[in-house]
Amino acid sequence: MASSSNPPLSITVYRGSESPGTYVWSPFVTKLEARLRFAGLPYRTESGSAPKGPRGKIPYVAISRTAPGGQASPSPTVLGDSSLISEKLVEDNLVRDLNARLTPTEKTQDLALRALLEDRLYFYQEYERWMQHYYTMRPYILWAVPYPVQIVVGLLVYRTMRQTLYGQGTMRFSAEELSSFRKQIWESLNALLVASRSKKQESGTDPAIFWVMGGNEPTEADTTLFGFICSALVCASKVSHRLEFNDRTNSVRRGPETRETVRGFPVMMDYARRIHDHYFPDYTLGE
């Protein structure tokens, strides 16, 4: 939460997308936006691009402070990496530490959940998107590049991604093994959400929102999990940014397997919808 002694802030989130008011394919963009919204910190969005970011990736932010006389700071502070941005906001007392109330064991569990998503599932899903659905990814990621150039740039990106995934280890497994790994992770995450919602229901209270760590408030793991769920739901073979929390059919769009896996967990979909309704009511939601 912002300190009353701090001057007013202007925060711009660069998302790598030209579509405002929508969820994007990058789970780290939605993770950062969730972090800001959980704290009630207003911001605006711009498209930006990975090469312009301080760490060469999306998202990144520009933070400007307004002096008492109304004069904006001449050069905004530009930060990259969703986790480091959140840490800096906590350090500067602009948002509260979501994990401050956790025990050492719970903090380790929260960190492990985030690592499972960001350091393992992320690469499994990059394989699914870039290696198995390349022609879906190319026009979305390279939306600002003219089509003839997209072909050349897309092949360069594909080659780089392939080398990255092989060096990281993901491409040393078969497609069938990677599919199994992804499902195992989503099943484990869903089991945590089922337990959390059941805990709320057993207490006799309506779980307006239930959280992955089972507490009464969100932790950093919730920002990451919500980001990955939204990323999975908007990634379809026909480019779209509209979530479909209700539609369980395949009649509208077909996309990567992960999308259907996530939609097959009713409690996980309920978790995401409740967060959407409370914190992202201005964002597009499919019928």
Give a concise summary.
This protein is an alpha+beta fold.
Explain what the structure shows.
- The chain has 287 residues and is an alpha+beta fold.
- It is built from 9 helices and 4 strands.
- Helix 1 links the parallel strand 1 and strand 2.
- Helix 1 packs across helix 7 and helix 3 crosses helix 6.
- The chain is globular and about 55 Å long.
- The N terminus is likely disordered.
Set down the secondary structure blueprint.
Elements: E1 9-14, H1 27-38, E2 44-46, E3 60-65, E4 77-80, H2 82-91, H3 104-131, H4 134-141, H5 147-168, H6 175-202, H7 220-234, H8 257-263, H9 266-279
Parallel strand pairs: 1-2
Antiparallel strand pairs: 1-3, 3-4
Helix pairs in contact: 1-2, 1-7, 3-5, 3-6, 3-7, 6-8, 7-8
Question: Gyration radius, to the nearest Å?
Answer: 19 Å
The secondary-structure class comes to alpha+beta
Beta-strand fraction estimate: 5-15%
Order of helices and strands: EHEEEHHHHHHHH
Helix content: 40-55%
Distance between the termini: 34 Å
- What strand line-up does the widest sheet have? 2-1-3-4
Number of helices: 9
Work out the number of β strands. 4
Based on CA inertia axes, which overall geometry fits? Answer: globular
Report the average pLDDT across residues.
87
Low-confidence stretches: 1-5, 238-242, 247-254
